[in-house]
Design a protein that fits this description.
Number of helices: 13
Order of helices and strands: HHHHHHHHHHHHH
Number of strands: 0
């Protein structure tokens, strides 16, 4: 919805790209800051902070229509131009999941289910992007107003997420056992994985979902509903493929699974 909505507001492709860049930059900065201070706070408190920031982000996108206010909301909010990387929610939830799993195989299966559910939900969200157009037609209201309501739904989802976090049981370390630094024994592994993720994200940044949608609008004059169906199918295929990852990793190993699936996927 983001690229189509901004285009309907009259933003140029450069302005849309700037807002999308702002969302990515802001997500990176806030995730880094939370990573440095996460050992000082409970995971529940940090997750609730993320949920309330999501709620405020949706309200900001619904309230403002000018470039600079929207850019500020994009930088300081949780809006993400792709349904795959979900800002600071991802590392916080992954850390909570890792503390609940026992054993490598169980951890791989747990994260696979987590990613499948997330990808499938993102696919349904992409499919629902055509609803505002139908709503505008049925209720005889402006299309732009119907599209703006999506951000209110985004805020409502943030409130629902906050409620779910309050009811989710998390394992918290006692004050005596909490590390004084965020990374101790795992520092080297985290730095190597960060280098991998940065390369992967740099490549993926050229084909961010919002900018890909903008290209589809301009190149093929696709409607929001058609673009939603396009991303629904691609996200659904991605989520279903992750069902195979635990079995494949158990047979050939985690690293080989990443190599033998990542390279062909990028080539395609």
């Amino acid at each position: 919805m983001l690229a189509g909505y901004l285009a309907h507001l009259g933003f140029t492709p450069v302005a849309v790209g700037a807002v999308v860049t702002g969302t990515l930059f802001g997500s990176g900065v806030v995730t880094l800051v939370v990573g440095f201070v996460s050992h000082r706070f409970s995971s529940r408190r940090l997750l609730l902070f993320a949920a309330f920031l999501m709620l405020a982000t949706g309200l900001g996108f619904a309230a403002f229509t000018d470039f600079w206010p929207l850019l500020l909301v994009a930088v300081f909010g949780t809006m993400n131009p792709s349904n795959g990387d979900v800002s600071l929610f991802l590392p916080l939830e992954q850390a909570a999941l890792a503390s609940l799993a026992v054993g490598r195989r169980a951890t791989t299966a747990l994260f696979a289910r987590y990613n499948v559910i997330g990808s499938f939900s993102g696919a349904l969200g992409a499919l629902a992007v055509g609803v505002p157009e139908l709503l505008a037609r049925w209720c005889n209201i402006a299309t732009l107003a119907a599209e703006r309501s999506v951000f209110l739904v985004y805020s409502a989802v943030g409130a629902l997420v906050a409620w779910l976090y309050t009811r989710t049981q998390t394992t918290e370390a006692s004050a005596e056992h909490k590390p004084r630094q965020p990374l101790v024994a795992s520092r080297a592994a985290v730095l190597r994985l960060s280098a991998l993720f940065s390369l992967d994200s740099f490549g993926g940044g050229f084909v961010v979902q919002s900018l890909l949608a903008l290209w589809l609008f301009r190149r093929f004059q696709l409607s929001l509903g058609a673009a939603g169906a396009f991303f629904f199918v691609s996200s659904l295929a991605s989520s279903l493929s992750q069902f195979l990852s635990p079995r494949l990793a158990a047979r050939i190993g985690l690293v080989r699974t990443m190599v033998y699936t990542h390279v062909p996927a990028n080539l395609f």
